[in-house]
Structures are given as C-alpha cells and as structure tokens.
Amino acid sequence: MKKEIARKIFEAKNIALSSHIRPDADCVGSGIALCLMLEQLGKNVSFRNSDRASFPITEFPGFDRVEYKQIYPDNFDLVILLEGGSEDRHEQKNLSEYFTINIDHHVTSSTISDLNWIDPEASAVGELIFDLGKELKIEFTKEIGFNLYAAIASDTGSFKYSNTSYHALKTASEVVKRSGIEPHLVSDLIFNSNPAEKVVLIRKILATLEFHHKGEMAFIFCSADFIDSGSIDDYETEDIISIVRSVIGVKVVLFLKEIGSDLFRASVRSKGDFSASAIAAHFNGGGHGHAAGFFFTGKFAEAKKEITNIILDQLKG
Ligand SMILES: [Mn+2]
C-alpha cells in the first residue's frame, strides 16, 4: 500500500491534504510534515482543514501552511486524508470528485477512499508518514522532524500510553537521528507550555469530580460557563482526563463537555480490560479501546445518567 501511495504521489502535480475536524497534534503535525515532504518533491500542495488547531499546535514549525477552506471545486490530481477518510470527518464536500487516499491508524477509519492505508498497529499516523517519507526518499529536515516527533510523542502521551510499541520508539529515534531535532524542545512545547487560563479551567473541572461504583468509574464535567471567552473546543483538555484516569482503582473516566445548547461531547478514557470504544459504539461514536468519544443531544442530567448506566453495565460485566 505504501508503495502504491508513493507511486500516486510521484505521478501527481497538484495535491491537497486534509486532517480531521477538531484536529490534534498527530494529524496536524503529520499533515505539515507530509506537506513539506511533497514540496521537496516539487509538488503544488494545499493543506486544507475545516477547524483551526489549538495552542500549542499553532506553534509547530510550518503551521502557517494550513489553510481553512474547501478542497472542492479546486483542481487537484490527488487528495490525501489524514485520520478520517469521510466527508463528515473532514467537513469537506464532494471528495468523490477526486482520487482520494486515506492514511490512518484508527481501526474505525472509513474505507471509502480510493486507497486506504489503515494500520491500527501504528501509535500515530506520524509513524506512517515517516515510513512514507522514507519510501519517497525525502530529506528529513528539522521542520519535518519536529512535526513527526510531535505527532508520535503526542499520540503516545509522551511514550507512556499502551500504544508505545517498539516500532513507535524506533520511529521516534530514527526521526531524531535523521533530522537532528532535540526531543526535549518538542516536549517542552507540547507538555510544558500550559497557559494560566488552562490550569484555572482544570481547577474548575476537577471541582466536579465524582467517583462511582467503588471508585472504578470517575466522572468530570466542563460547563460552558467555565470558559471566560472563546469556546470549550479551543481548549485541549486531554491533560485533565489523564490526571483523573491516573487515580488508583479507576478503570474508566467519563468526561462531559457542554459544547452547545443541550449538546455535549463525551470522552471516555479507560485502562485495563475496559473498552472505551464499546461505550462510544452505543452512542454512534468511535475511537480506540482506551480512548473514545461521541456526541450526546439532550439535557445534562440525561446525558450523565444514560452514559453512566451503560458504563456501569460494562463494569458489572
Ligand atoms: Mn492519531
């Protein structure tokens, strides 16, 4: 598949890239890295997303390459989709007008693209983009290295999550060797650059913490009122889930974010045998075994009760 994708890239002149909505460090970092690789090959590249990423992703070198517009109706020989594949996941229209390639590491990824390279063994799509870069024989510049390392370090939670494999570590070390980047500088930006407002927000969210079912389930909530300005979606709140998930005895965390009137985004994070994606599947969401999410329309009390009940059913097994 990698060779087939490389062949398509060599043949194309005008290439569009897109990463999914609510973009994270992996899909944006991988997208910037791929954009820079394709530019090295002399391609005309447009990296077009629907949503703007939040800080600190905005500080990744080459972030200015990201545009916010539709791919259609502009003329492209090839459209490469990162972590998604469907029009919904990218908020892009008429993708069927193009030759599309989907590159992803989620087992739930769409397969409607013309070529689908989906490797659930990969910790991050950044691993796959590094492999593709080797296939394309590009030079791994510092900018490319920074973005690929950031993608992998971010999706593995700084090489702490269960997806931290030999291949993830090997790829990260190869990225460092080939590009000459300093990993601590990437880590400082991704993990040690909290704006004060974010820590204040974490304090408010932590005040909602509840434990259920003998401490095996934890619940936290972010009300729209907690945000002074901007929207909740602007805030990267993964850190707070990690704090709660770290509690001894907790098997699953439910995090509800109020994102609109009677509209919530639910994030489920788990450890051990508890399947987060099984919970998300009940509500037509998606994700991995230990990290999944979905939307819930309704009142807060209903959202909390209905989702908690499904989680408790699984805990009681
Ligand atoms: Mn990813």
Low-confidence stretches: none
Distance linking N and C termini = 39 Å
Ligands, deduplicated? manganese (II) ion
Number of strands: 12
Sheet with the most strands, sense and barrel status: 6 strands, parallel
Label the structural class. alpha/beta
Query: What is the helix tally?
Result: 11
CATH topology of the largest domain: inorganic pyrophosphatase (n-terminal core)
CATH class of the largest domain: Alpha Beta
Give me the CATH architecture of the largest domain, please. Alpha-Beta Complex
Assign a percent range to the helix content: 25-40%
Task: From the alpha carbons, calculate the radius of gyration and give it in angstroms.
Answer: 20 Å
Instruction: Give the spatial strand order of the biggest sheet.
Output: 3-2-1-4-5-6
Written account of the structure:
It contains 11 helices and 12 strands. The chain is an alpha/beta fold and 317 residues long. Bound molecules: manganese (II) ion (MN). Manganese (II) ion (MN) binds next to loops.
